[in-house]
Amino acid sequence: MILLSIIDGDAASLLLETPKMTSRSTQGNVRDFEIATEDAARLAECFNSIDDSDSWPGGFTHGNPYTAERVLDDRKKRETFRSLVAYSGDKIVGTCDIAQSMMSKDAAYVGVLKYLPEKII
Prior knowledge:
Layout lengths: L1 E4 L5 H6 L13 E3 L4 H13 L18 H10 L2 E9 L2 E10 L6 E9 L6
Antiparallel strand pairs: 1-5, 2-3, 3-4, 4-5
Helix pairs in contact: 2-3
């Protein structure tokens, strides 16, 4: 579990006001996840490709592979501030979800953080 502590103000307002990424290392490689079938299918492919016990205890899908529909249903149920994806070409190769911490209104929780190491440059 990773918590991001916010000194002044609440986590939601800080994360929602975060401008688009402009770092040379992320520009053109990281963006917000779009609730659309195309992004969902790409994220499902990413999740299914890390379905091994080395990447996630017991495998990430637990024998139930992700589909675009499953990703969309899951994303619509979550209350995240921000859901980012890293991509290489037309593939999503990583994801990071940030949500409100249940422990403090002044902290954020990184709920899902995954990447495909062989795809990171």
